[in-house]
């Protein structure tokens, strides 16, 4: 109680300075009516709205268990344009989606009502992507994890107004990986992602195809976009009412936009491509029987060797590819993917006979952290700090007219990322750099875990932790670096680097 009193005193001062919007108060009233017993009066409701996201990162609202009622939706593969002038066309648009059987929810989507399709690029090809904005507000198209020139990256400097379109071009030089795309307009990223703007981008190459890994899309190679959401009493994604400045965390789980999903699989090895596409929630994925699975890839590509795990944690925007072997699973076993708190995310339904033959080779890739990279001095220091609207990087908020760092194209530098604790102890910040894939050199001076020794573009930083990463940019331009709790990003926890 003493700690609560201290927190209350500090945050009441914050409230007196910053105020609390009518939308925020409406959000608290809704939470009180829906969940009951959370707030005693309106003043306490105001305080809790300002602090809930921060405190809930230590005591997060539990997700409702999936009932397994609905077969998991698989994102469609986007067809290539036929005219040869453009490889793909991607359109941001408004829609209505039957997330619930008895209601239509207003949503955003790419080339559809909710979420988006999968774009498949091949290493070595020249690609043109035409982006179109059919929303009633500005948006951007950010290619998260893609090594691309700054002008094509889709950061906040490149907004598309309603009705506008733009074509970007790139030469694909990255190895096989699962990346994703989402909007990145200044101050509006969190809301647009929350409403449904997110899609996947696969890079494929000949080397990975020779490995014999599960690769039949939608059968034994399954993309999984994990998102948590709050819905209002009308089953709408009322972001203005429900958002939290410290990271909007919901109680309902959607996977690929599917509520109460199940995944039907055959008796074979199944590759699950995991994306934490939430605004703020961290996930720790496990099998409900305590069994193991095999991790084969990180954000930016395959690991050198497969790693056997019984759990894996992903902060917002992080990805991982795992293989679960269903060959000897009995249909009556009721196997499911669960979160750390035991909430059921994805029940598996084993059907039919044996499936495709596939393999997990002992050697997958050759990603090397060189001795030179290990011994490079730190040349960039990044300090992450704060909560709610008071978040900063190196004591500053984002300024589109300020360049925070410069770096030469093609040169590797070591960045040190420090998550400075606050008086409440701090919280995990997922840190992302645009336009590059980096390698982890160390965590608090120690070598990274085996399953982090691959290409990364986002990284989880605990309070008080220092992480060194080796960063090289293949292209020139201005790129963002920021916390990927989307509300933190919108509140200015973002900086810029110019690559020359």
UniProtKB/TrEMBL annotation:
Belongs to the multicopper oxidase family. SUPFAM superfamilies: Cupredoxins (SSF49503). This is Multicopper oxidase domain-containing protein. Keywords: Metal-binding, Oxidoreductase, Signal. One of its GO terms (molecular function) is oxidoreductase activity. The keyword Electron transport does not apply. PANTHER family: BILIRUBIN OXIDASE (PTHR48267:SF1), CUPREDOXIN SUPERFAMILY PROTEIN (PTHR48267). Coiled coil: none annotated. Residues 94-207, 247-330, 378-499 form the Plastocyanin-like domain. The keyword Oxidoreductase applies. Residues 1-26 form the signal peptide.
């Amino acid at each position: 109680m003493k700690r609560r009193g201290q927190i209350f005193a500090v945050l009441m001062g914050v409230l007196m300075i910053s105020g609390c919007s009518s939308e925020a108060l409406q959000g608290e009233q809704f939470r009180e009516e829906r969940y009951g017993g959370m707030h005693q009066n309106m003043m306490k409701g105001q305080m809790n709205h300002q602090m809930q996201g921060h405190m809930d990162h230590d005591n997060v609202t539990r997700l409702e268990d999936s009932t397994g009622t609905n077969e998991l939706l698989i994102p469609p593969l986007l067809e290539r344009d036929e005219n040869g002038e453009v490889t793909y066309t991607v359109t941001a648009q408004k829609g209505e989606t039957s997330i619930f059987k008895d209601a239509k929810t207003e949503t955003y989507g790419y080339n559809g009502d909710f979420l988006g399709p999968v774009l498949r690029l091949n290493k070595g090809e020249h690609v043109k992507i035409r982006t179109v904005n059919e929303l009633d507000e500005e948006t951007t198209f950010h290619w998260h994890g893609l090594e691309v020139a700054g002008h094509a990256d889709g950061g906040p400097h490149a907004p598309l107004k309603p009705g506008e379109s733009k074509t970007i071009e790139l030469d694909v030089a990255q190895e096989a990986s699962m990346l994703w795309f989402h909007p990145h307009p200044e101050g509006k990223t969190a809301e647009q992602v929350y409403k449904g703007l997110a899609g996947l981008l696969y890079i494929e190459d000949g080397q990975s195809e020779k490995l014999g890994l599960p690769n039949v899309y939608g059968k034994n190679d399954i993309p999984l976009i994990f998102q948590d959401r709050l819905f209002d009493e009308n089953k709408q994604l009322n972001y203005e009412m429900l958002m939290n400045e410290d990271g909007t965390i919901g109680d309902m789980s959607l996977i690929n936009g599917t509520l109460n999903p199940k995944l039907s699989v055959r008796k074979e090895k199944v590759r699950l491509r995991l994306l934490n596409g939430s605004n703020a929630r961290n996930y720790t994925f496990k099998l409900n029987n305590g069994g193991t699975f095999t991790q084969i890839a990180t954000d930016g590509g395959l690991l050198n060797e497969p790693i056997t795990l019984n759990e894996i944690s992903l902060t917002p925007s992080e990805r991982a590819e795992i293989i679960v072997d269903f060959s000897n699973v009995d249909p009556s076993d009721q196997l499911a993917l669960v979160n750390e708190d035991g909430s059921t995310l994805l029940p598996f339904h084993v059907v039919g006979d044996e499936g495709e033959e596939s393999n997990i080779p002992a050697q997958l890739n050759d990603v090397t952290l060189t001795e030179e990279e290990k011994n490079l001095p730190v040349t960039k220091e990044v300090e992450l700090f704060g909560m709610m609207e008071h978040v900063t990087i190196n004591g500053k908020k984002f300024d589109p007219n300020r360049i925070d760092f410069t770096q030469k194209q093609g040169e590797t530098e070591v960045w040190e990322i420090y998550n400075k604790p606050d008086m409440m102890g701090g919280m995990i910040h997922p840190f992302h750099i645009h336009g590059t894939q980096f390698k982890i050199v160390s965590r608090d001076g120690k070598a990274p875990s085996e399953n982090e020794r691959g290409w990364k573009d986002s990284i989880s930083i605990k309070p008080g932790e220092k992480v060194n990463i080796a960063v090289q940019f293949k292209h020139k331009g201005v790129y963002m670096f920021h916390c990927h709790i989307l509300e933190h990003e919108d509140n200015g926890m973002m900086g810029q680097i110019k690559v020359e």
